[in-house]
Design brief:
Actin, Chain A, domain 4, three-stranded antiparallel β-sheet, about 25% strand, flat
């Protein structure tokens, strides 16, 4: 009787092991969503049939998830959240693979609508085409990136460069953290403990001081007053910006041009290692 019991126990152990192994194999073989890039690279002319007229260079690289299957509603949700939170919500409801094309079409339409009449007036008034001001030449460049961040979080960044005839071109970025399990875009309130805001701002201030010293090749910047003496943080105390990333190596914070400093200072990307900020994060 005991021998029969042992044989049955052994049989069921092997059976359970086989089921577990098969489950693991199926899990490994389960198709995953793929990161896909849609690229537009073109030059259009202000007067479509006149190649000697001013031009607009457009380069767009938009990234999104290609669902693993028709049942992969999570990837579709994540794509929808990306589109809703970028570009002021202009492309909500557009198929992800068509976003870059629609952006390019909008830029071209805007370029020809806003600039053509001014250009034609200059030509009509006798200005030689060789003397046409350079401000009629536009450029748009959009670079997006989607990658795995910390734990089950997608990091999405998009940087937009625009040269539209002003005193100087402008560059600005937008960062998103997306929960890969729920598809939700995480806000600062989701990521950081409310009672830790002052501590986090102290870490940001120290990182900013270190960054400014590195850029200036000095060690004389030590306080917020030192920063203000060179035009940084003139209108505010340190704060947690809207743009942050829960990346693999630490929490990064982005201040675009003009946010905390003059245009000439550029943007500031500050990263605080997890061993310094971990205690202030919501789990």
């Amino acid at each position: 009787m005991r021998k029969t019991y042992l044989l049955l126990s052994t049989f069921f152990c092997f059976l359970a092991s086989g089921i577990l192994m098969q489950s693991c194999i199926e899990q490994k073989q389960k198709p995953q969503a793929e990161i896909t890039s849609s690229v537009i690279d073109t030059t259009v002319y202000l007067k479509s049939d006149v190649k000697s007229s001013p031009s607009c260079k457009i380069h767009i690289e938009y990234m999104y998830l290609t669902p693993a299957s028709a049942e992969d509603s999570l990837s579709m949700l994540i794509n929808s959240e990306i589109q809703k939170n970028l570009f002021e919500g202009k492309y909500i409801g557009v198929a992800p693979e068509s976003v870059s094309t629609q952006m390019a079409d909008n830029y071209i339409r805007s370029y020809r609508t806003d600039v053509l009449k001014l250009y034609e007036a200059d030509v009509y008034n006798g200005m030689d085409e060789q003397d046409i001001p350079g401000w009629y030449n536009y450029e748009y460049d959009i670079q997006a990136n989607l990658e795995n961040g910390r734990d089950s979080i997608w990091n999405y960044t998009v940087t937009t460069f625009e040269s539209t005839g002003g005193a100087h071109p402008n560059t600005y970025s937008k960062w998103l953290n997306i929960d890969a399990v729920s598809g939700k875009v995480l806000t600062a309130e989701d990521a950081f403990k409310k009672e830790a805001e002052k501590k986090i701002c102290d870490l940001i201030l120290q990182a900013l001081i270190e960054e400014v010293n590195t850029r200036m090749k000095t060690d004389t910047i030590r306080t917020i007053d030192n920063l203000r003496s060179i035009g940084i943080l003139l209108e505010s105390d340190p704060y947690i910006p809207e743009n942050f990333l829960l990346s693999k190596d630490g929490v990064s914070f982005l201040y675009n041009r003009y946010e905390i400093a003059p245009y000439a200072s550029g943007d500031f990307k500050l990263t605080i290692p997890y061993n310094e900020i971990e205690t202030y994060l919501n789990k």
